[in-house]
Write a structure and sequence with these properties.
This protein is an alpha+beta fold. 42% of the residues lie in helices and 19% in strands.
């Protein structure tokens, strides 16, 4: 609770903006590397070309997903489902092993917040300069620097929005339409939406998104255990805290290694004190580790007062890396990845659906054969045109009749092809017989699909005689 302006008590305190201190160290360098890798995917991937098309494009209007040499259609939605399951399992596995490492190194909220914080520091100065600007005595200077800062933020957000929409609309076409004033409605909406979202969440709200809005912060404890690698303060080594000069022996004064400089708190982007234990607000950015290691180096103490460790290790117990949940997540990921890889390797970019003509079950041709009519829906999902050949297997003497030019499909073309299948009556031993329709490309024998269907005909004579005998057995004539 806090006291409001009227002197009463309020259950909500006013949010105080956090100005994290600049720290340098091994983990900050790792974060910079991770930042450039993630931004490289976002900013570079839409510009890559694969032949005459983008290398990566989610073309929703044409219902095609281009992934370098692979083209996926809505019929391949199972692959997207498997990918999402893999990503979820990967998040669970990494969390079980190393806590919120995703949040600290690769989360878009963290990455873009770091970029905007860099811009803010370049314009307004370090933490001390920013606090000085906001003391109320530098209003004009603060307004000028804020205008420049928000202009730079807007440029970054707008370019990021263009890159994000470039995954759905070819980025070169998008820029041409944007500069020519011919931008479509949905592209305009999402450009504005992404720009506003980046400015709001990473420029204005910042740590409040991680603390109050992100659901991951709330359920992460369900994936942690005492063997999870987390950022912790070594209380046994650091307490009791106290200031001292460099040449003073802390043990002689009954002090721990913590000098209570609060640099770990000043460096934290969410404003927590890691010395109070693991907290859900911690995003594992490791800024507190770099800050504390810097102080330990200056004092000549060993690093690691704040470090990556486990709760068991802090209590001098053994840490298990291979534990049931880790093995379960790993086994599931390996199984799904294997099935996905085999399925993609065996994938045939042709879709064949067989529909029976509902007007008549069958008919008898002039030469006495039994004929069924089917409608084939053929989709060529390959990037090259193909001419296909249709074959039917089943009863002896089975034949197909169709227009050959109807099975010549361009890349991405879908066609409805009427097909007549004829079978001699003598080859039909029952009223319904299974047949297989196989479609094969003339120029590539490996490009083949097949579909099973039923061939209907009249009830064979032996079957009718057998049913007649069954009727006589069920209803015998009465005698005197």
């Amino acid at each position: 609770m806090s006291q409001d302006a009227g002197g009463g008590l309020s259950y909500f305190s006013k949010h105080q903006k956090i100005h994290p201190r600049i720290v340098h160290g091994r983990f900050s360098r790792l974060r910079v590397v991770a930042l450039f890798l993630t931004l490289g995917v976002l900013y570079v991937l839409p510009w890559l070309r694969w032949g005459d098309r983008p290398a990566f494009l989610l073309d929703l209007p044409r219902r095609k997903f281009f992934l370098f040499g692979l083209v996926l259609w809505p019929q391949d939605l199972i692959y997207l489902t498997a990918l999402l399951v893999l990503l979820a399992l990967a998040l669970f596995l990494f969390t079980a092993l190393a806590g919120r490492i995703w949040c600290g190194y690769a989360c878009p909220q963290t990455v873009f917040t770091q970029i905007l914080v860099w811009i803010e520091r370049a314009v307004e100065g370090d933490r001390a300069a920013q606090l000085r600007l906001r003391d109320g005595r530098h209003a004009l200077e603060l307004a000028g620097k804020r205008t420049l800062k928000w202009a730079l933020w807007l440029s970054v957000a707008a370019w990021t929005a263009i890159s994000a929409v470039g995954f759905f609309t070819p980025v070169r076409e998008l820029l041409a339409e944007l500069l020519g004033g011919a931008l479509g409605a949905w592209e305009s909406f999402f450009l504005v939406f992404f720009t506003a979202a980046i400015l709001l969440f990473t420029g204005f709200l910042r740590e409040q998104v991680c603390i109050y809005m992100c659901p991951y912060a709330r359920f992460q404890s369900a994936m942690f255990d005492r063997d999870t690698l987390v950022i912790s303060y070594d209380r046994a080594r650091g307490e009791p805290r106290g200031a001292r000069s460099r040449d003073v022996d802390p043990r002689a004064r009954g002090l721990g290694d913590c000098v209570d400089c609060t640099l770990c708190v000043q460096a934290c982007p969410t404003g927590i004190d890691i010395r109070e234990g693991l907290q859900y607000q911690c995003i594992a950015c490791t800024a507190c580790i770099d800050a504390c290691d810097g102080v330990m180096d200056k004092l000549g103490y060993a690093r690691g007062l704040v470090r990556y460790t486990t709760l068991n290790a802090l209590e001098s117990r053994s840490t298990r890396v291979l534990r049931p949940r880790v093995l379960a997540y790993s086994a599931l990921m390996l199984a799904i990845t294997s099935v996905l890889a085999v399925s993609l390797a065996r994938r045939v970019p042709v879709e064949l659906d067989v529909l029976r003509d509902r007007n008549a079950a069958y008919r008898e041709t002039r030469d006495g054969r039994i004929e069924n009519v089917y409608r084939l829906k053929v989709l060529n999902m390959d990037q090259r045109p193909h001419a296909f050949v249709l074959r039917a297997t089943g009863p002896d003497g089975i034949e197909t009749d169709y227009e050959a030019d109807h099975l010549q499909l361009e890349a991405g073309q879908v066609r409805d092809v009427p097909v007549r299948v004829r079978v001699p009556p003598a080859s039909l031993s029952r009223r319904s017989t299974e047949v297989v329709l196989e479609l094969t490309a003339e120029d590539d024998a490996g490009l083949a699909v097949h579909e099973r269907t039923r061939f209907l005909g009249p009830r064979p004579e032996p079957e009718r005689e057998h049913e007649a005998r069954d009727d006589e057995d069920d209803h015998p004539e009465s005698g005197s």
